[in-house]
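Two proteins follow. First one:
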Amino acid sequence: RSCSFTGFSTVQSRKLAKSLSRSSVRSRVSLKPPKVYNSLQKGALIWDPKPLQVKKIFEALKKGLNEYLEAHQAELDYLSGRHKDTKRNSRLAFYYDLDKQIRSVERYIRKLEFHISKVEELYEAYCIQCRLRDGATNMKQAFSLSPSTKASRESLLELYKNVQECTEDMCFIEGALEVHLGEFHVKMKGLVGFARLCPGDQYEVFVRLGRQKWRLKGKIETDDSQTWDEEEKIFIPNLHEKFEIKVTELRGLATILVGVVTCDSINFFTTKPQAIIVDITELGTIKLRLEVLW
């Protein structure tokens, strides 16, 4: 599934294209102007790439995309089998309808294959920049321990520039990669609290992912059912942020904090809806049930 973001500026796009082709060692990544990701929006440039986190997200994303590809390939195989039988035994109109379905699935498979290849291409470029930065950092440390001369100072200055350039490139590639993460559809399934939840109790649930926020209020009814003012919210995943969930109980004008927890999104990159039960209190006396579909 794809998601949309506002675009990079022309200057940033040229800078990324130039930096990726700066050396023959670097990967030749053919990029359209990459779209901005959350941590680069509104001028908040944060030059702090996190290779280990990016690797985990990349592996989860690639696995999820391959799951979608396998599922649609299986659907195509099934439709193709029916297509052959229909051609011999069925009406012409039904045959053309089935042929239309097959072409639609084939187009989607090609899009998925391109999506996977683009993600792999970006991550390969990211790894190259990471290795170049590590090498320049190690050389910089070695030069800093040697006797100070004009040549060593010039080398240190050049290495410092190289480290900065590689760091900058990694951040912009993270932004380009983040565009391919899709979106999470989060559904509210209610609170679980056994004796802790009583008819008439009112709660507020606040879910945050980076700058994205979802605030909803619910009430425990007399038949122990729950009503919430919102049931679903779409979140755009990013590389560096976790879900933060805060639950408070509303008592008149007062609010009582029930608990705050964080939830990693790595396991959400899968074809099947993920049922999540989060312990809001330390003892687990109140839990929150959510469903996430990628």
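Second one, unrelated to the first:
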Amino acid sequence: RSSYSCCYFVLPCCFFDFHGKYSRRQSKKTQYREYLDFVAQVGFVCGFHVEEDCLRIPSTKRVSFIGKTRTYPPTEYALIDKQITQFINDRRTCAVVMCGRGVGFNHKDHCDGVCREAGSERPEQETETAGTAWMPEFQPREKVEQIRNCASLPREFVDDVVLKVANLLLNASPPKSCSDMQSGDRNAWNRGESLSLKEVAEHLNKETLKRLKSEYGGLQTLLKNNHQVFEVLNGRVHIRDWRKEKPSSETKPEVKRRLSAEAFKTRLCWFFIHHPDGCSLPSESCPYAHGTEDLR
């Protein structure tokens, strides 16, 4: 709708309409197929020759639509824009009625079909013409989206939380016997205990939790970002035991193995510096540097 020369590509995923979640209207199709037909319908209403393609990506939702050419000449642009406006308003009316009354609708599958409550008339104030606001209540994202995945938090703050949580897990484990410590048995390396995210949060101060709450995923995201130290499984936090990690040659393709090799020992080993038993791996096997002299 932005211009006559506009082309588009869309990969439908989540089931949403213009004003909320998409409501199913047919039981003979799968929800995915029905939604794909709706997205294609939007393209037809907007005056595009809609082409469908299936992407070669590892996803169950890989059907895409491409609109490269129009079904009408440039001289009819204003007329088509009015039709688009009516289509949007009709769907908005249906969304309100469905939410408020839970009634059925007469619906056509064709590109000229509109969703209307039987016998209802659209309020005159909802009629928009070309040149006015498309959807006055629509709020787009900011041009510069704020990064809120804990990556922009100060390093000192992150390191402090990591150390506190790690010590919490390590201290929850029963102390090793003197014989184990003297024998230097690597199996006696303190792996700590696992705690739920809720239990971990209860041991952090309010100021820390408040700061994490403003980030997407909060505490869980911060711990997952620190993959070297923690493993978060089914809502429980564990100290990562690198002895159990499979070699990259077994789990990664050639390109990723090359990238891993380039990143080998480019960061200091957290366990070598902070863990009371040191690192569970010898220096030559650990992907992280055991001291500054070991850095690449």
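SUMMARY FIELD: Residues 8-97 form one domain. The longest strand covers residues 63-70.
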